[in-house]
Amino acid sequence: MKIKSKIFLLSILALLTFGCKREAHFGDKSLLVSENGRYLTTGDGKPFFWLGDTAWLLFSRLNRDEVNTYLEDRKQKRFNVIQVMVLHDVQSRNTYLDSSLVRADVSKPVVTPGNNPQDTVAYDYWDHIDYAVDKAAEKGLYMALVPVWGTNVKVGKVSAAQAKVYAEFLAKRYKDKWNIIWLNGGDIKGSDGLKVWNTIGETLRKNDTNHLLTFHPRGRTAGSAWFHKAKWNDFDMIQSGHRRYDQDTSKNEKLHYGEDNWKYIESDYKLKPTKPTIDGEPSYEGIPQGLHDTTEVRWTAADVRRYGYWSVFAGAFGYTYGNNAVMQMHKFTDKKPAYGPKEEWATAINAPGAKQMQYLKNLMLSRSYFDRVPDQTLIAGENGEKYDRVLGTRGEEFAMLYTYTGRNFSVQLGKIDGDDVKATWFNPRTGKNIAIGVFENKGIKAFNPPGEPANGNDWVLVLDSE
């Protein structure tokens, strides 16, 4: 078949096959699950690659000027989703000392008339959240909101009855804002408060059919373990967590994968019914390995790149980045910062990993999108383990293989269309390409990435049909 004819037919099939499951209530700004159940699209059917940033304490720690500074930076670095807690604690206060609730009861939000930012009397806790959500919308950013952090439910501060009233309040307040995504849970196992989590999920879905909804689980677990088949759950989220292979204490969990976050994605990918999946919290840049011992070595930009490419190549529809100082909006004046941040959030937003995340997004959007599948048969011969693992993904007319260490590996050609393939090295640290050459698209071919093998000398081999 001629290439032009094939491209035309694929375009028509994309429109027919990869439409959207739910009505595009907000037009082109709507987020929907693609018909193949693997990815997200905007209301006009275009690919939406979720590039998230973790800003858990944005609503409580930043004033209005700081909110604008942070969101503008993330817009410039091509993030498009901001993950944030609505209530970190029951009860919560913001930087203006506005209280969120009446007597720490989530069914009784403290709401005052008016929402004028210049009115210090009427401007309350919820109006400040409105300001941040609206400011994000001005910049084209989606806000992924966690209604109440999981610990509060686990210790009994939120009943199912209270959760129902609270979820109704949230849905009513935000259902008409286009840039909302709901993250039920919050660093918690679904079994810790199962009735509450289902109540929140079901109530949000009943009162807000316009936004996507998922569950943010505990570290080294997958939300799909509890909610994959829940009608309110639109896509699955894992939290691969912050521990090294030797620090992983989840040996009694059903999924025990250590740092191999691609295994969580691979497991979700096989589930029925088909739903999109994503690593919503891998190791944060600048956080101690294992979290709690601040004398431990810190996760670096190389590590967050590895988690990103591993999970996306394994089938994830996007990736969420995090930084130790940014997620808690740390300032040196804080009396009890968590996990020993070494810089303030306003400096940490420019960490190397934060700048490099956009290259992953750019790469995935540079080729055909909805036909992409994970494919480990691209790697010829025996694959490596742990850091030496090579992950492969492909579409009809391209293939990509990621190596974290830059070691030599061999590729089984003939997996994509075309008599010949053009090979290129893509640098995840710079987003630049290095041409390799054109080869016949058959047999097995060895590739030697630039530089000497070492952790963080990561490269993507890109093969395009010629």
TrEMBL record:
Putative collagen-binding domain mapped to chain residues: 373-464
Annotated signal sequence range: none
Protein name (record): DUF4038 domain-containing protein
Organism of this sequence: Pedobacter jejuensis
Domain (Apiosidase-like catalytic): residue spans on this chain: 34-370
Lineage of the species this protein comes from: Bacteria, Pseudomonadati, Bacteroidota, Sphingobacteriia, Sphingobacteriales
Classification via InterPro entries: Apiosidase-like_cat_dom, Collagen-bd_put, GH
